[in-house]
Amino acid sequence: MSSVQAVLYVLAVILIAIAALPLRPRGFSPALLGAALALLAYAWPVITG
User: Which of 3, 4, 16, 42 has the fewest Cβ atoms within 10 angstroms?
Assistant: First the structure.
């Protein structure tokens, strides 16, 4: 696992954890952004390979 992939996974987990809190930020969805980052981290070896 590359370091970029690890950072993307960590950011995804943090955003998904923030989405579970009762706070509702305006303008963006932390859960959707976290899911997108997790998908990007999963596909990172294919993208850079």
Answer: 3
- From residue 18, alpha-carbon distances to 3, 44, 46, 49 in Å are 23, 23, 28, 31
Task: Report the candidate in 35, 42, 8, 39 with the shortest Cα–Cα distance to residue 19.
Answer: 35
Give the closest residue to 15 by CA, choosing from 27, 36, 28, 33: 33
pLDDT value of residue 15: 92
Give CA–CA dist 22/42, Å, rounded. 28
Separation CA 8–CA 11 (nearest Å) = 5
Is the pTM value of this prediction over 0.90? no
User: What are the boundaries of each domain within the chain?
Assistant: 3-48
